[in-house]
User: Which sequence fits this backbone?
């Protein structure tokens, strides 16, 4: 099976702009989670989608939003970008099998806000 | 709230040395625990996971971890490291009620030839 794919891999934006990141989970996985990775805050949970519904949201402002499509692909959007939004954004594809529950990560999108 | 602590932020070892990275979590109920590794320039990869059963879990590349419930610990070990093990290692717990992974701050391992 192909792994988790994320596009684009790199983005440079300026403050005030908005950005959309895309994630395609592993085939057959219906749940997608997003995480933000920064040197200062580490890895933090943004939100999770399952069957086109947001099930959980982390402690991030409303500028961060997402959605999931019927083919399980997911997008996240950040509006009115701030310098502090510069980070690696990771998408995880979730597999639940019996009692196990495992997330597999994509390569990430590195966002730089100038 | 659940939390994960990784005691060592930076570890430097010579090749063939033994490795043990500490991880403690705060949750007292049933836990699902993971170690992920991030090699330079690469994405986060799953090393191993614990859900139930044998508390000694074996993962890829010769890594293993031991779940000690009484100590709330899930330490990662490798008997003999290689230069290629240079990476950042993250311990994580699955927050059952919220379907999210809670990560530790990570440990940067540098292995010198």
Assistant:
């Amino acid at each position: 099976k192909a792994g988790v794919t994320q596009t684009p891999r790199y983005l440079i934006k300026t403050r005030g702009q908005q950005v959309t990141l895309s994630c395609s989970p592993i085939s057959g996985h219906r749940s997608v989670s997003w995480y933000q990775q920064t040197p200062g805050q580490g890895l933090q949970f943004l939100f999770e989608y399952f069957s086109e519904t947001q099930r959980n949201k982390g402690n991030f402002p409303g500028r961060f939003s997402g959605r999931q499509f019927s083919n399980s692909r997911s997008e996240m959007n950040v509006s009115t970008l701030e310098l502090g939004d510069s980070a690696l954004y990771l998408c995880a594809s979730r597999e639940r099998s019996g009692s196990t529950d495992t997330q597999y990560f994509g390569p990430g999108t590195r966002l730089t806000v100038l | 709230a659940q939390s994960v602590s990784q005691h060592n932020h930076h570890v430097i070892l010579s090749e063939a040395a033994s490795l043990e990275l500490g991880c403690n979590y705060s949750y007292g109920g049933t836990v699902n625990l993971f170690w992920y590794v991030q090699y330079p320039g690469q994405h986060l990869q799953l090393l191993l996971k614990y859900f139930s059963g044998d508390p000694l879990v074996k993962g890829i590349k010769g890594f293993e971890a031991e779940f000690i419930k009484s100590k709330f610990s899930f330490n990662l070990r490798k008997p003999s490291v290689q230069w290629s093990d240079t990476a950042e290692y993250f311990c994580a717990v699955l927050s059952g009620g919220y379907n999210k992974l809670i990560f530790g701050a990570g440990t940067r391992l540098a292995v010198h030839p």
